[in-house]
Each structure stands twice: as C-alpha cells, then as structure tokens.
Amino acid sequence: MRIVLVGPPGAGKGTQAAYLAENLSIPHISTGDLFRANIGQGTRLGQKAQEYMRAGQLVPDEITIGMAKDRMEQPDAAEGFLLDGFPRNIAQAEALDGILSEAGTALNAVLDLEVPEDEVVKRIAGRRMCRNDSGHIFHVQYNPPKTEGVCDVCGGELYQREDDHEDTVRKRLEVYHTETEPIIDYYKAQGLVVTISALGKVAEVTQRAMEALGRGPEASRA
Known about the structure:
Blueprint: E1 2-6, H1 13-24, E2 28-30, H2 31-41, H3 44-54, H4 61-72, E3 81-84, H5 90-102, E4 109-114, H6 117-125, E5 127-130, E6 137-139, E7 158-159, H7 166-180, H8 182-188, E8 193-197, H9 202-212, H10 217-221
Parallel strand pairs: 1-3, 1-4, 2-3, 4-8
Antiparallel strand pairs: 5-6, 5-7
Helix pairs in contact: 1-9, 2-3, 2-4, 3-4, 4-5, 6-7
C-alpha cells in the first residue's frame, strides 16, 4: 500500500506511522528522517538543504521533493510506503502525483487523523521533557511524573520546550491550517481520503486506522 498520513501537530502521526508501517510491512518515510539521512550522508540534496537551514531560510519544495523521490525509489519501498510529513502543501502533493504517475503507480489512501484543536493544545502544551539525554517524555495530565518536575527514570529535571508553549502551538496550528490542511480537499477530490478519530489509546487509534484501510479483523475475515 502507498499511504499518506496527515493530521495536525499533536495528532500522534509519528507514533501511528511507526505502528501502521510495521503492521502493513512497508517503510515509514518521514520528512525528518529524510533530512537527517541526506544531511548525515552528505548527499547533494542534503548539502543544499543545509545551506538554507544554516542561513535560517526555509528549504525549497524542490529539495524536499527530490529527497522524497529518491527514498521512494529504494528497493524496500517497491511494494509500498507510508509518507509522514510529506506532502505538506499542494505543490508537494502535485509533485508526488507526478512522481507516482511516472513510476506507473498511485496512492491507495490518504489517512487523515482528526483531533479537536483544544485537544491538540492540551496534548502538546502539557508535555514535559527530561533535560538529560534519556529522551523521556511525560505529560502533566496523561502521564504525570511521580514527583512534579522530576523524571521518574533518571531523576533529571523536566521542562517544557519553547515549541510546546500554548501560543507557539496555536501558531503551528495556523500554519497547518494554511499550508497543509488544503491537501485534504485536494485528495478528497481524488476519492482517497479516509478520516478517523485520533482520540483514545494508541492501540485503539491504530486498530481504527487499520480497519479504515481495509486491513482490520473484519477485512481479514472477508
């Protein structure tokens, strides 16, 4: 299957992408991983991207599109992939259609993870990170530490990232509504969008997604 995963910040795209890719036996291709891999390997596209990033400028669409194209042409993606964070605007969506058309393939579905805006703010603004390199994450409501401000695992100080402050989260949502959300209508016109609620436990959302993609228990018995 060839799937695009969309949803606002805080919808759990990264978590769901990992589980869905494993269940569907296809690679999870995220924009973040594409940039890290290309910059780390010193590819031509990675070097160009780094030049823009060092100058504090946005990386042009053509560079991101080129990275995604190269990754989708790798052998492990021959039978499908799950795209997470790409495409992020109409121009990238149109480019993806062109890439797939040239390869004689097409998307099977665009999975839209739906979360109310207030819930998104609550999820992100409530996150607390450990200052140590452990990478442990807590949440003031959903996964609070035993001692406020202290990591249960290593005893490190917990803090709130600047990106997680409520005003910043709402600005990120504005960017999502302006730049990325329009691709949902773009793909609806192609009959590809499957919308599911991303509320509830991780396993529940994964099962909901698998069933929506026709890969749940009901589909298995059909």
